[in-house]
Structure formats: C-alpha cells, structure tokens
Amino acid sequence: MDGGAVLTGDLVRLRTLGPADYATRWRWDNDPEVMRWLDDGHPEPFAEAVARFERQDPNSYANVSFGIEPREEERLIGFVRLRDAEPETGNAELDIYLGERDVWGRGYATDAMRVICRYGFDKMRLHRITLWVAAGNAAARRVYEKVGFVEEGRAREAFRRDGRWYDSILMGLLESDFIR
Ligand SMILES: CC(C)(COP(=O)(O)OP(=O)(O)OC[C@H]1O[C@@H](n2cnc3c(N)ncnc32)[C@H](O)[C@@H]1OP(=O)(O)O)[C@@H](O)C(=O)NCCC(=O)NCCS
C-alpha cells in the first residue's frame, strides 16, 4: 500500500489511519448508538483498544483499512475496510461504519462504499465483495442496496439486540452488480 494514500469520491475522501486517530475510534467503539447493530464484544480499556488498532493497522492486500473524511473538512467521521481478501478467489469482506452520528443521512456512507468497492474491483482485481448485516439495520441495508449488493443468504436469529433476535444477512456484490 502507498503510505498516506488518499482515495476521493464525490462527497468523501478515504485516507490511511494512524495513532492520532485511536482516541476517536475508541470513542466510537463505546458509543451504544453507533454499535447498536455491530458486535460490540466486551468493554475494552483504551490501552487494549490501542493494541488492537496497532495489530489491525498495517495495510496489506489481505486487509486494507481507511478512515472516512468529508471532502470539505479534515475530520475523521468513519472507518471502512476490505479484509480477508484472497487473490486466488478474488473474494473479500467489507466493514463500514460512521462513528460521528451528526453526519448520518448525508450520503457519506454510500459514497464511501462506492470508493472502496471501486478500489477493490479496479486496483485489487477482486471479483466479489461480501458483508454481513443485521436484518434490523435498515439504513445500512439501504446503503448496500444502493451500491448493488444483493442478499445471498441468512443466518437465522444470529444476532440479539434489545431482547430480540434478528437474522444476520449475507450480502454480496459481484463486479457486474456494482452500481458505480
Ligand atoms: C448505516 C450507516 C453506515 C449509514 O450511513 P449514512 O451516511 O447515514 O448513509 P447514507 O446517507 O449514505 O444513506 C442512508 C440511506 O438509508 C436510508 N435510511 C436511513 N434510515 C433508515 C431507516 N430507518 N429505514 C430505512 N431506510 C433508512 C436513507 O434514507 C438513505 O437512503 P436514500 O438515499 O435512499 O434516502 C451509518 O448510519 C452507520 O455507520 N451506523 C452505525 C454502524 C453501522 O450500523 N454500520 C453498518 C454495519 S453492517
């Protein structure tokens, strides 16, 4: 990976992450509204989160992470990555979230999805990108559908939130599905 690489979309910029971002990312991981539909694991002290970020951060073909910034300001608002990419199969899995709640609903996640999927197909030569989403996460499902993801399967009642079970939906995007 190019150090400090920047990818630009219509609304957002994707940039590499570093130690200056750890406090912000830890705050997001401890915001129950941001984590509502994500696996929030167990409470984690800042030092443990830093160690986790450091383990994750070296970008490689198999695991490439970016911070999301609005184009008009230098402010980290979210995180997106392609992980477990395999050159043999051309498959990779995608994670995205916007940790700053005040920017939800402005189209930033949709634009960030387009930028990272372009990167995956054009630069990494991927063939298929997948992700898992909780059935109750209507905003995320809408974002993925706007980019061309389709439902491929369901793990029934795999995710529990607020005393209810939700299916976990596997969605996939072939290069030919991609709505650039
Ligand atoms: C889900 C998330 C990524 C969406 O980001 P965003 O920048 O607000 O998304 P966008 O503005 O690009 O698009 C949101 C779309 O969902 C729609 N939407 C929002 N809330 C909705 C709801 N409750 N039901 C149905 N659609 C909804 C919006 O209308 C919009 O669609 P439209 O363009 O057709 O109007 C963001 O809210 C987030 O990171 N949430 C917390 C973490 C998370 O859930 N990540 C995904 C895990 S799989």
Describe this structure in words.
Helix 3 packs across helix 4 (138-147). The protein is an alpha+beta fold and 180 residues long. It has helices spanning 22-29, 46-56, 108-123, 138-147, and strands at 6-8, 12-15, 63-70, 78-86, 91-98, 128-134, 150-161, 164-174. The chain has 4 helices and 8 strands. The mean pLDDT is 95. It has a domain at 7-130: Gcn5-related N-acetyltransferase (GNAT) (Aminopeptidase, 3-Layer(aba) Sandwich). It is 25% helix and 34% strand. It has an 8-stranded mixed beta sheet with strand order 1-2-3-4-5-6-8-7. The chain is globular and about 40 Å long. Bound molecules: coenzyme A. Coenzyme A is lined by residues 34, 37-38, 96-98, 104-110, 133, 137-140, 142-143.
List keywords for this structure.
180 residues, alpha+beta, Aminopeptidase, 8-stranded mixed β-sheet, 8 strands, 34% strand, globular, binds coenzyme A
Short summary of the structure?
By secondary structure, the chain is of the alpha+beta class.
Number of alpha- plus pi-helical segments: 4
Helix content: 25-40%
**Could you tell me how far the N terminus lies from the C terminus, measured between alpha carbons in angstroms?**
23 Å
Q: CATH topology of the domain at 7-130, anyone? A: Aminopeptidase
Q: How much beta, percentage-wise?
A: 25-35%
What would the average pLDDT be, to the nearest integer? 95
CATH top level of the domain at 7-130? Alpha Beta
Compute the gyration radius: what is it? 16 Å
**In the CATH hierarchy, what is the superfamily of the domain at 7-130?**
Gcn5-related N-acetyltransferase (GNAT)
Main sheet record:
8 strands, mixed
CATH architecture of the domain at 7-130: 3-Layer(aba) Sandwich
Oligomer: single chain
Low-confidence stretches: none
The best one-word shape is globular
> Structural class, please?
alpha+beta
* Strand segment tally: 8
> What is bound: which ligands?
coenzyme A
